[in-house]
Specification:
423 residues, alpha+beta, Butyryl-Coa Dehydrogenase, subunit A, domain 1, Butyryl-CoA Dehydrogenase, subunit A, domain 2, 7-stranded mixed β-sheet
């Protein structure tokens, strides 16, 4: 099959083709693909047996194909050597790999088919992002899909969708979300950048911090304060009023400071409605970071177990010692628990459940804590050598720290859960 072919739905019970046949397949399928989702064997949300409702925790055929294809593709195209190379690269991503990912249909996974996308949903994206965490995929994928495509789908006019969504789906345009500021707050009061709105044009002044991949972005979705309240704008980065400076981070990813000095952009949504429009974006971005953490922790666990089997001390593998065994047991428990709570949150936002906000906060709080424990155990199982750059395990440790802090750390989300509990 070629990159332009579509994934056809397989009936349950049919033999699925080997994953290698799906590596170059562009994910598509639209409404047919949406009939089978995690927690959704039937459109009603579960299958029924003798009057009881049972939740299906397995992946659908489409999601299994997506997962297997993504894993095989990333093992070939994004090995450890590539991750290390991108740490030293000024751009932080490979345009060649970006183009290949677009051929897979990944940038357009959430984009409706009428705009050149696959028309799948957020649960499918969570499956893909778990594989991204496993492979530590560098580059602007999350910033473009979560910070660009979703705001446009949620708030964009028809003209804006026609203009930008096909470019995202094809890999032509890179987006990012400029939200956080020097106040380091994640609520609406943390937005202090100023916006002046005149018709559909927005003029912006202020500073944004930790803007992912702004160094390579063509456009930013910027949140700023206008006289009417928080307002969103699509801002081209290639203009004199936008100054971008890369920040040094523990993960060596491309986080940037963006100074807006009279920058101009296009109004996204209604003036003053920006914070409400951002809620589905923030919820999905937060769960996306949790999905990345789950994949990262899964691979960290596998590396640690393999090392425990191979490393010999006192005449036997270190995995035979109870202290190491218990660490590995704790790791797999934390990984599986994180996966469950992450997919519960993904399902909640995907189906607009009333409790989705709490589900998101719980998932981010738990996965941040649990994966921190996982990578710490992984380092301890390796001993001091695990902290050296020669060993792969340190890559996962450093990137866990990035994702743990993204869109609020554990304490932030615990506070939000407590507020929702009314205490």
């Amino acid at each position: 099959m070629t990159g332009g072919d579509a994934v056809s739905m397989m009936p349950r019970g049919s033999a699925a083709p080997p994953a290698s046949q799906w590596v170059a397949v562009r994910v598509a399928g639209g409404a047919a693909a949406r009939r089978h989702h995690r927690y959704r064997v039937r459109p009603g949300g579960a299958r029924r047996q003798r009057g009881r409702v049972l939740v299906d925790l397995g992946l659908s055929e489409t999601q299994e194909l997506l997962k297997n294809a993504a894993r095989e593709f990333l093992e070939n195209e994004c090995p450890e050597t590539h991750v290390r190379e991108m740490e030293e690269d000024d751009k932080g991503y490979s345009p060649e790999l970006w183009a290949k990912m677009a051929e897979q249909g990944w940038q357009g996974l959430l984009i409706p088919e009428e705009y050149g996308g696959a028309g799948l949903d957020f649960l499918d994206l969570a499956v893909l992002l778990e594989e991204f965490g496993r492979a530590l995929v560098p580059g602007p994928f999350m910033s473009t899909v979560l910070g660009g495509a979703i705001p446009l789908i949620v708030a964009g006019s028809e003209a804006q969708k026609q203009e930008y969504l096909p470019k995202i789906a094809s890999g032509e345009a890179i987006f990012t979300l400029a939200l956080t500021e020097p106040s380091a707050r994640f609520d609406e009061q943390g937005i202090e950048a100023e916006a002046s709105v005149s018709g559909s044009e927005v003029t912006l002044n202020g500073t944004k911090l930790f803007v992912s991949d702004a160094n390579v972005a063509d456009y930013m979705v910027v949140a700023a304060k206008s006289s009417g309240g928080t307002t969103l704008a699509v801002v081209p980065t290639n203009q004199p009023g936008v100054q971008i400076r890369q920040l040094l981070t523990i993960a060596r990813d491309k986080q940037c400071e963006v100074v807006l000095d009279g920058a101009t952009g296009e109004l996204l949504g209604e003036e003053g409605a920006g914070w409400d429009l951002l809620q589905p974006v923030i919820q999905r971005y937060t769960v996306a970071e949790a999905a990345y953490l789950v994949g990262l922790a899964q691979m960290d666990f596998e590396i640690a177990v393999d090392y425990a089997k191979e490393r010999v001390q006192f005449g036997r593998p270190i995995g035979s010692f109870q202290a190491i065994q218990h660490k590995c047991a704790d790791m797999v428990t934390d990984v599986d628990g994180s996966r469950f709570i992450m997919y519960k949150a993904a399902w909640s936002v995907n189906t607009d459940q009333d409790d989705r906000e709490m589900a998101v906060n719980m998932a981010k709080a738990w996965t941040s804590d649990a994966t921190r424990r996982v990578v710490a155990h992984g380092q301890q199982i390796h001993g001091g050598i695990g902290f050296t750059k020669d060993y792969k395990i340190q890559l996962y440790y450093r990137r866990q720290k990035r994702a743990e802090l993204a869109f609020g750390d554990t304490e932030h989300h615990r506070e939000l859960v407590a507020q929702q509990l009314g205490i």
